[in-house]
Amino acid sequence: MANLVMEHVETRALEVLPFQLKLYRSCDIGKLSFHLIVLVTLAAPLFLVWSAWRLLTGLLALPHHVYQVGDDMVFHFCQRLMIALLEGVVGVKALFYGDIGDIVQKKERAFYIVNHQSSFDWIAVSLLAERTGCTGNLRFIVKKTIQSVPLLGFYFHQHGCIYINRQQLNHFKMKQGLYYLQNKSIQSSVVLFPEGNRFIPGKMDVIKKSTEFALSQGLPVPRQHLMPRARGFVLTVEEMRNYLDAVYCVTIIYGGTKMPHGGRRAAPNICGEA
């Protein structure tokens, strides 16, 4: 990843910190159901609180960063509640390897590059961000299909997340979203899953496309992930280089996915197996 940064961007260097996050998930359906019930129950009142704040800051014509402070507090509360339930009730265990000590101390505005296997991945990133105290400041770059999810799709956009079309990247729209995050009064860390699609061992059509692309470019064929798409990554670094402190190259590993014969099971998803 460091070579890609230096090859495509000729501004100041960002520090690249590689590390791994390994997750073990409890299989207690009762605890998981309780976790989901609590989150769903609180979703409506929290959305009303956020809506009131959004309306108030709009009516008073307050600066964007003032709205963002309140919005980030709501997002931080939701993330902290979710993490507390996952670790304290459901029994999810997160083990960190690599430069975790450095990032906890530095509390940087970072660009997270993360491998993609599961719908749980964005929560895994939150588990990492929670250690640095910046869960409320995470801005995700996600595929535009998420925009159609009720409440969540609308709120993510208002929070500063950016929707992109993986097949045909709209540079202008993406730059607009990144321009908003360039406001130095708005604390932001940006998260990107450059593979686009999730790596699922059974989805051979997706893996085949990734393999064919790697071979066509004379690159090594990845075995544990898909070939990353470079355009969104490069554009983000170009636009945000002077507003972020480091690139975090994150590898998420899910416990229990390695099979005895050396193959892999699909990573667990939020609502069960893939």
TrEMBL record:
Keyword entries, A-Z: Membrane, Transmembrane, Transmembrane helix
GO BP term, example: phosphatidylinositol acyl-chain remodeling
Lineage top rank: taxon: Eukaryota
Transmembrane spans: 32-53
Keyword flag Transmembrane helix: yes
GO cellular component: endoplasmic reticulum; mitochondrion
GO molecular function: acyltransferase activity
SMART domains: PlsC
Record domain Phospholipid/glycerol acyltransferase: where: 110-234
InterPro entries: Plipid/glycerol_acylTrfase (IPR002123)
Protein name, as recorded: Phospholipid/glycerol acyltransferase domain-containing protein
Lineage: Eukaryota, Metazoa, Ecdysozoa, Arthropoda, Chelicerata
